[in-house]
Design a protein that fits this description.
Helix content is about 30%, strand content about 15%. It has helices at about 60-70, 100-120, 135-145, 175-180, 205-210, 215-220, 225-235, 265-275, 300-320, and strands at about 40-45, 90-95, 120-125, 145-150, 185-195, 210-215, 240-245, 280-290. It has an eight-stranded parallel sheet, sandwiched between helices. The longest helix is centred in the last third of the chain and has 24 residues, at about 300-320. It binds manganese (II) ion (2 copies).
């Protein structure tokens, strides 16, 4: 296989120090979507948190994750791969958004991703609140049909309505996605679910659809390796999306998020689980709910950028495997 050309290589941090220059994801080249014909893996920011029901700030996530992603390097010693040798990767910038309109933003984001999908780009996104997964899934489903999903989160995000009759919030994206036929509920697994509910029935709908829910109690009982085995068997070999809400992690690791829940997953286990998804038919993913105003240290954004790097590696390998 030919190695990707120089124009898809990250800046060499042994020549240009990590703190210098303009921040892009993983120090990759910034390429406009209109010129991204030979990009295979596109890193995209969605700077929007208009679906947030409580503490906002995730609109600032992409910029801070770009900055902290400068700490990533180019070889993955556990997977033993260098993703930039496997696929043409680039930072495609941020999608257009409208900070004061949910409907407008859903359309703008979907339009951007439709264009990316038409160009056969595998999208790896930085949110944004979790509602941003919905327009991404809408665009991907046009190509792949109903997808499987490995969903890391403290919350199922399958509630129906908020504040009366409002259907589109960061607590509802996967209910909408299943209703719209974007996800195959029987190929969806949710990992790390915990925290109080509005009512005893909150998670009933998702379970009725056939979602496999691994609550945190079961997660600790099974252990990470068995959780991976379970995830692989639920999603199978068909196209699969990966969505990582950073509040899946315990707030000691990721305090910069809108809806923290104590008693969560640690960062190493999160890395091990993402590596465990290697070999799946991965067609996109996101890291969402990093809210920099709640963690000015940047630690949560570092966690987010690191999880994006883990996904980038397994996605690049999936792209190479499909060739
Ligand atoms: Mn979520
Ligand atoms: Mn959550």
């Amino acid at each position: 296989m030919q190695s990707p050309p120089d124009r898809f290589q990250p800046i060499d941090s042994n020549n240009v120090p990590r703190y210098a220059g303009i921040a892009t994801f993983m120090r990759l080249p910034s390429i406009a979507l209109e010129q991204a014909n030979d990009v295979e893996l596109g890193l995209i920011g969605i700077p929007w948190d208009g679906g947030t029901t409580n503490r906002p700030g995730a609109r600032h996530g992409p910029r801070q994750m770009r900055e902290l992603s400068a700490l990533m390097r180019r070889f993955h010693p556990v997977l033993e791969i260098s993703p930039y040798s496997l696929a043409n990767c680039a930072d495609l910038g941020d999608t257009p958004v409208n900070p004061i309109s949910v409907e407008d933003t859903l359309d703008l984001v979907e339009g951007f991703y439709r264009d990316a999908v038409d160009r056969n780009i595998v999208p790896l996104s930085a949110g944004g609140d979790h509602l941003i997964s919905l327009p991404v899934l809408r665009a991907l489903a046009k190509k792949h049909g109903p997808m499987g999903m490995v969903h890391f989160d403290a919350h199922t995000d399958t509630l129906d309505r908020y504040f009366g009759d409002f259907k589109y919030t960061h607590g509802t994206p996967f209910r909408r996605a299943i209703e719209e036929g974007l996800l195959d509920a029987k190929r969806v697994i949710q990992i790390g679910i915990r925290g109080g509910l509005y009512s005893a029935e909150d998670d009933a709908w998702g379970l009725e659809q056939g979602i496999r829910v691994i609550r945190i109690e079961e997660y600790f009982e099974l252990g990470v390796n068995q959780v991976i085995t379970e995830a692989l068997s639920v999603v199978g070999e068909a196209p699969t999306y990966v969505s990582f809400d950073v509040d899946c992690l315990d707030p000691v690791y990721a305090p910069g998020t809108g809806t923290p829940e104590v008693g969560g997953i640690n960062t190493f286990d999160a890395q091990v689980m993402l590596r465990g998804l290697r070999g799946l038919n991965l067609i996109g993913g996101d890291v969402v709910e990093v809210s920099p105003p709640f963690d000015p240290s940047g630690n949560t954004a570092l966690v987010g950028a690191t999880l994006m790097w883990e996904m980038l590696c397994i996605f690049a390998e999936a792209i190479a495997n499909r060739r």
